[in-house]
Design brief:
The chain is mainly α. The chain has a single domain, classed as Four Helix Bundle (Hemerythrin (Met), subunit A) (Up-down Bundle), CATH 1.20.120. The protein is about 60% helix and about 0% strand.
């Protein structure tokens, strides 16, 4: 297995294949917008919607980099948790956009060579950026599951 195969494997398992931990697609599916917006009264945790928006922000930046387009980042990471909308239609659009962006990323990586991963012009090799986004997703998947458990809407 080469690095491209490994990245594709990890991307697929983190997003859509239910393996030893639940994938992002599963943990954000079948939620109402109220469940996605929910936060406990006590404590300070992000809502599922905020986390999903945050993840999409970084996935979209990775996709821009894969397309060799300029990927500007906000100077305030907290802004990446901002919610756009507050209806079921808005939530469904966010989930659909996550699916699309993840598929675009997967498709781009499939077409790459190992040389492409090493010869990127950024500060860090492209493979490291891809791997970082995968690990970032895995980290936040746990937070989404915890939020669902607190709401009593996680049965796995």
């Amino acid at each position: 297995m080469n690095i491209i195969d490994l990245l594709l494997y990890e991307l697929e398992n983190t997003y859509s294949k239910d393996d030893w931990y639940s994938p992002l697609k599963l943990v954000i599916s079948d939620l109402t917008y109220e469940q996605a917006l929910w936060k406990p009264e006590i404590g300070s945790i992000n809502s599922i919607w905020e986390i999903t928006a945050h993840l999409l922000y970084y996935k979209e930046r990775l996709l821009l980099r894969l397309r060799r387009e300029n990927a500007e980042y906000t100077s305030n990471n907290q802004e990446t948790f901002d919610i756009l909308g507050n209806t079921q239609q808005d939530w469904d659009f966010l989930v659909k956009r996550m699916e699309e962006v993840n598929q675009y990323i997967y498709d781009h990586i499939q077409k790459m060579s190992i040389i492409d991963l090493e010869n990127d012009t950024s500060k860090h090799p492209l493979w490291k950026h891809i791997n970082g986004v995968i690990r970032h997703d895995a980290h936040h998947i746990g937070q989404i599951i915890m939020n669902r458990k607190l709401q009593g809407i996680w049965s796995k």
